[in-house]
Write the structure tokens for this entry.
Amino acid sequence: MNAADTGFITICAALVLIMTPGLAFFYGGLGRRKNVANNIMTSFFCIGVGIAMWCIVGFSLSFGADHGGVIGGFEYLFMNGVETAEDTFAPTIPLLAFAMFQMMFAVITPALIAGSIAGRMRFKALFFFVVLWSLVVYYPVAHMVWGGGFLAQIGSIDFAGGNVVHISSGVSALVLCKMLGRREGYESVSYRVHNVPLVAIGAALLLFGWFGFNAGSALAANELAVHAFATTAIAAAAAELSWMLLDVFTCGKPTLVGASTGIVIGLVAITPGCGYVPLGAAFIIGFSASIVCFFAVSVIKKKFGYDDALDAFGCHGIGGIWGGILTGVFASQGVNPAIRWNGLAFGDWHLFVAQLAAIVITIVIAIVGTIVCAKLVGLICPLRVSERDERVGLDISQHGERAYPSFNGLDD
Amino acid sequence: MFKVEAIVREEALEDVKQALFDIEVRGITVSQVMGCGTQMGYMHYVRGSASTMTMLPKVKFEVVVSTAEWADKCIKAICGTSRSGRVGDGKIFCYEIDRAVRIRTGEEGVAAIQPGPPETDEDE
């Protein structure tokens, strides 16, 4: 056991965890004032559910012995034996440290889905949905990509979770928001960013934590981790500047909400390739990701008319897909010799094809899994809140809480 | 007695307040309001998507004065400072009031809105 690696990974696990509250504030600020506590709660409860489920069955299903290339086993139920078993995934750190690090990914992934269904999903329904979705979608995909399953076997690569975290949650978010239907008054009032500084705080925590998300995925305190750190920083910066430029071109002024969004998108896009692509490629990945997602959020969303309230699909789904594709273009064995082939930019098409295959498979699993989970939850209670509850706001109707006292100071 | 109700731009708050103080008006209530006029708001862009914001934030001043002449002075002062010539400058409404009461002393009528008796020291 290497002390430096173990210390590094443990701290990175904490950094990944702070991304979940960061995401909560990011979404909370973007949404409506009457739903802010609910928007934050949809991420916060994932901390409880995600950690609990992971330590009961999640780690075992994701990283247990392989079954059919699809799922792990039950040998680590209730974390039984984890502290004595050998760590094959990250040989220089204890298996429990690896498990704790991976756990934080399982916490944030379902929280991302909540961005699309903001303002109209019954909290009870979301709770059960997250429980089922973790079992049906997240643990299998995590196993397939990182646990030695099918997607790893075909040679696709995903350093820190572009597939596992962003594509799976982003696509699931799209499906779920279609199943729920649009918010009341969607055509007239599509955007209400009620708290801009909160969005910025959220983006800041996400950015800070993402360094743990990406660099920690090297699973050791080594040059690869530092490389991932660098590509993360570059992509986030390029994407932020790119979005600010887009804001200036389309509506004249760079916005703080746009800059915050750009940062997050750059981080999403670099996630699958941070430990595989050269530093120069990070500029391209970040800069282009903002353009692609801006287009998705402003043009495609309007054209197809789905109410992805806080752009979970537009940012994480599309960003993850774009990042996965560009990883297939720019990945280099010179950066990370552990990959089977070079990317398209270095003359080899195999990796590119494997990436496309992995993306498509993940999308299919996400779609099917989400429909199944939502239908099952629908047997327990309706997915959507009543019309009156939606009008009054989910803070009051789902949680009985008022987020802010009324603006002239009358506490009620 | 007359009430002058002025809905003005947010950025005119300090100027209007100072203008009213300058003409010796005391007794102003200011509130934050949202409103629209005939132009029905403006186009607002968030992350590349446009939406129409119909209600805009404004500031409302309410002043109660004793005579029509005083009301006229107030209106001139407010218009003078807050007129910028652009759409959205606001509106002023003037009402007649039939009763006013000072809560502290129970005085009614014009005496209620003029400077009242000094506070006694016994409670200090």
Notes: The two ends of chain A are 56 Å apart (CA to CA).
